[in-house]
Task: structure prediction
Amino acid sequence: MLDKPLKKQDMNNNKQTVSVLFMLFSILFCVCLIAANVLETKQIAVGPISLTGGLIVFPISYIINDCVCEVWGFRKARLLIWMGFVMNFFFVAMGAICDLIPGADYWNNDEGFHAIFGLAPRIALASFVAFVVGSFVNAYVMSRMKIRDGGKRFSARAILSTIAGETCDSVIFFPLALAGVVPTSELPWLMLWQVVLKTAYEVVALPLTMRVVKVLKQYEGEDVYDTDVNYSIWKVFSL
Result:
């Protein structure tokens, strides 16, 4: 017996679905962003350079962004970025609300909790704006270079998109968050080291990234070229 033909509405619904692997990558992406927020509260030293602990995990979000854009295209990357933004905002908002609620009489760790979850509104705003701009620049560069190069030179576009995205992220975040707090002469160095080290992270992880992308393309049977995509960041549900 032949299956009943799909109605037009059913066909449209199928186009709005995402794969299990995309869902898993999205979960990991959101976890990385939330973990970076917590780890950012610790200052770490890499040799003579002082950085924030978020450097350990935040570059992974750019690697995931590269993989998603390469395999599923800009549309899915756009959904991923906004999903990460909303989940990160929710986490920060819940942490801030909990921080404002008075602790129990026996609770004696208000100072430690506030240090982690009492994110200043100025820093939170700078972080959110920098993330959105940097992530979309990263995805856009990946998408346009893939079309230009006919799908070749993945390594070049992965590295160049990271440089572009991280540069925008740093140029926005540090002046907005730390101007007047950190000496003006130090800000360019902070921005430069963030871009250099996060890009180096991408380069070190590149062999693994390339392997993951290859497996994803084979398993999903997808290798999207954004030849007809609208690059507006607001068309979130246009998949």
About this structure: The CA atoms of residues 111 and 118 lie 9 Å apart. The longest strand covers residues 43-46. The helical segments are 8-15, 20-39, 58-72, 74-100, 110-117, 121-148, 154-178, 187-220.
